[in-house]
From TrEMBL:
Gene3D superfamilies, sorted: 3.40.50.880, P-loop containing nucleotide triphosphate hydrolases
Keywords associated with the record: ATP-binding, Glutamine amidotransferase, Ligase, Nucleotide-binding, Pyrimidine biosynthesis
Gene name in the database record: LOC107708718
Catalytic activity: UTP + L-glutamine + ATP + H2O = CTP + L-glutamate + ADP + phosphate + 2 H(+)
Protein name according to UniProt: CTP synthase
Domain CTP synthase N-terminal: 2-190
EC id: 6.3.4.2
GO-annotated biological processes: 'de novo' CTP biosynthetic process; pyrimidine nucleobase biosynthetic process
Gene Ontology CC annotation, any one: cytoplasm
MF-aspect GO terms: ATP binding; CTP synthase activity; identical protein binding
Metabolic or biological pathway, per its Swiss-Prot or TrEMBL entry: Pyrimidine metabolism; CTP biosynthesis via de novo pathway; CTP from UDP: step 2/2
């Protein structure tokens, strides 16, 4: 096993996650099996209770792990499936050590940071590095480890000491460190912070310049151009070709095509955390993947849902009208997941406008639940309809809390992780977008659900629940008759979107917003990445009509 530790200095948020993901991508393109671990020095057990304004989105894994958004970068770049133990926190380490102490595993010894905490860190990394993350279930050969925060932070010190010991335990030829540092350009001044954090003990061959690029997808190409593969081959004695293969060629093609896009498509993202784009990191990536797949430049119009409400019209009319102008001028509307009552009425008004104006719409998690509320109020004439999350006394509880929800504890109590959704009809747009499959498996994160007892009232009016859970008790997918694309999903499809394999619900939104959805469905959902046309496989001579259309386009 080869270990590559990525650390950062001078400032936090310097780009360690992108560097770690890019290094992993390069090595995977050379034929190696690569895994990744993110270390967060905070004392929280996981990211589940974080505010999106403080740490960005909470990324959810197949096993229900609520983790740092950097694990989303790892999965998207490397096209792997990680587990909650790939995100290591100070809280997890101390919890495991204290549990051992309570069981008497230390035989009465004084439990200390060194050696007990540092040993636990090393054991965790070595154990998790060998867990398969690819579909072929092969044990990884390389583990890329990102240490969050900056070198010098007090909370990082046990981890720094653990890896100081670790390099001797696994031997020099199996361990190396990448340090990411800011190099500000200040006239006639030396850059002391970068020298200090790296101690200056480097040859010129070990210094890589990572300047700003047009797209994060160009970072692996930038590193590869500067000889990263050759360095790793020598430093870690890797049995690989020095030139990355097919996978990186796809990244180059994708990056080049991204830079040449001319047509534009705009999506209004209506949410409550719009001042901090990392709050919707995976949502934005899923939109970008889909826009690139149909050869359109993406414009995201961030709309604070509270600005759409009547109260804002009274207090700040300019902000109110600007928000509605952005919403009305967008080609499509997306209402993502969220928690709390603030801004929910604005989201409902945005959904109502999308429904009435036949504007392409996608609601995710809370976005789907609020679509149910909007339809109940305006089409079923249940004026008081609401979610019990926001109004426990509502006369029409169209969204209710789930039986297993534990209101006494916040962390880890939601319906989390990968769950199966069964399509109940063949006449479903989303089913066709997924490839006409009987079921899909997507990741969830919610405490509330659509009230199944009221299902019939909605379906009689053309508001169909086309996807349900395995037991048929939970409503998972909604579609509206007589609308080009009005779709809601209880799950979070953005978590499994990939640059070369965009998420079907998001792809459907972009296709509808660009006016291409009817043609795409009519042609059988084929994919041609080279030309940005969407087909499920390459046309061949057995489909002469499609081949003729393909060549013409």
């Amino acid at each position: 096993m080869k270990y590559i530790l990525v650390t950062g200095g001078v400032i936090s948020g310097i780009g360690k996650g992108i560097i770690a993901s890019s290094v992993g991508t390069i090595l995977k393109s050379c034929g190696l099996h690569v895994t990744a671990i993110k270390i967060d020095p905070y004392i929280n057990i996981d990211a589940g209770t974080f505010s999106p304004y403080e740490h960005g989105e909470v990324f959810v894994l197949d096993d229900g792990g609520e983790v740092d958004l950097d694990l989303g970068n790892y999965e998207r770049f490397l096209d792997i499936r990680l587990t909650k133990d790939n995100n290591l926190t100070t809280g997890k380490i101390y919890q495991s050590v204290i549990n051992k102490e309570r069981r008497g595993d230390y035989l009465g010894k004084t439990v200390q940071v060194v050696p007990h905490i540092t040993d636990a860190i090393q054991e965790w990394v070595m154990r998790q590095a060998r867990v398969p993350v690819d579909d072929d279930d092969v044990e990884p050969q390389v583990c890329v480890i990102e240490l969050g925060g900056t070198v010098g932070d007090i909370e990082s010190m046990p981890f720094i000491e653990a890896f100081r010991q670790f390099q001797f335990k696994v031997k020099r030829e199996n361990f190396c460190n990448i340090h990411v540092s800011l190099v500000p350009q200040v006239r006639s001044r030396q850059m002391k912070p970068g020298q200090n954090v790296s101690e200056g003990h480097l040859s010129s061959l070990q210094v890589i310049c990572v300047h700003d690029v047009s797209s994060i997808y160009r970072v692996p190409l930038l590193l590869e151009d500067q000889g990263v593969v050759g360095y790793f081959c020598c430093r870690l004695n890797l049995p690989i070709e020095t030139r990355p293969r097919k996978m990186l060629a796809k990244w180059k093609e994708m990056s080049d095509r991204s830079d040449r896009l001319l047509e534009q498509c705009s999506i209004a993202l209506v949410g409550k955390y719009t001042k901090f784009s990392d709050s919707y990191a995976s949502v934005i990536k899923a939109l970008e993947h889909s826009a690139l797949a149909i050869s359109h430049k993406l414009e995201v119009k961030y709309v604070d849902s509270a600005d759409l409400e009547a109260g804002t019209l009274q207090e700040e009319p300019v902000k109110y009208h600007e928000a509605w102008q952005k919403l009305c001028s967008a080609d499509g509307i997306l209402v993502p997941g969220g928690f709390g009552v603030r801004g929910t009425e604005g989201k409902i008004q945005a959904i109502s406008w999308a429904r009435k104006q036949k504007k392409p719409f996608l609601g995710v998690c809370l976005g789907m639940q609020l679509a149910v509320c909007e339809f109940a109020r305006n089409m079923l004439d249940w004026k008081d309809a609401n979610s019990t999350e926001f109004d426990a006394e509502t006369k029409y509880p169209v969204v209710i809390d789930m039986p297993e929800h534990n209101p006494g504890q916040m962390g880890g109590t939601m319906r989390l992780g990968k769950r199966r959704t069964i399509f109940k009809t063949k006449n479903s747009i989303l089913r066709k977008l997924y490839g006409d499959v009987d079921y899909v498996e997507e990741r969830h994160r919610h405490r509330f659900e659509v009230n199944p007892e009221l299902k019939q009232h909605f379906e009689e009016k053309g508001f169909r629940f086309v996807g349900q859970d395995v037991e048929g008790e939970r409503m998972e997918v909604i579609e509206l008759d007589d609308h080009l694309y009005f779709v809601g999903v209880q799950y979070h499809p953005e978590f499994t979107s990939r640059p070369i394999k965009p998420s079907p619900p998001y792809l459907g939104l972009l296709l509808a917003a660009a006016g291409r959805l009817p043609g795409y469905l009519q042609e059988g959902c084929w994919l041609s990445p080279r030309y940005g046309l969407m087909f499920s496989e390459r046309p061949d001579s057995s489909h002469p009509e499609l081949l003729k259309t393909f060549k013409k386009k």
